[in-house]
Design a protein that fits this description.
The chain is mostly beta strands and 119 residues long. Helices cover 14% and strands 42% of the residues. It is built from one helix and eight strands, in the order αββββββββ. A hairpin with a 2-residue loop joins strand 3 and strand 4. The radius of gyration is 18 Å and the shape is elongated. 15% of the residues are buried. About 6% of the residues have low confidence. This is Titin.
Length: 119
């Protein structure tokens, strides 16, 4: 236990010395008149921090996986995009992008709540 604690402290100190920074994500928002049948997407962009980063998308606290109607793309080392091809009632929820590196993590969320009649 003491050895593990010493290793953790050493790793943290070496990251501080090297200036390695945890990611800081730009907030994202679902926008527009979102209705059943429309498409939408959001981007998760790391504004600050040092790569490599690990991007994860969640909906209502659960990991999202790509499906025929949902695409997750790593755009580059600093950004990822979530794209919903056809909004449905099941699309409503709290979407989160979580980004981590060896120095820490950050996450931002937005709620997708469709209003109005289907297209």
């Amino acid at each position: 236990m003491l050895v593990e604690l010493a290793i953790i402290i050493l790793v943290i100190k070496s990251q501080e010395i090297s200036g390695f920074k945890a990611p800081q994500i730009k907030p994202f928002h679902f926008s527009g008149d979102l209705r059943i049948g429309l498409r939408t997407g959001v981007s998760c962009i790391v504004e600050e921090g040092d790569p490599p980063f690990d991007f994860k998308w969640l909906k209502d606290g659960l990991n999202l996986q790509e499906t025929s109607g949902l695409t997750i793309k790593l755009v580059d080392e600093f950004s990822s995009m979530l794209f919903i091809k056809s909004l449905g009632a099941e699309s409503n929820g709290n979407y989160t992008c979580k980004v981590s590196n060896s120095a820490g993590w950050d996450e931002k969320s937005d709620i997708l709540n469709m209003k109005g009649e289907p297209c």
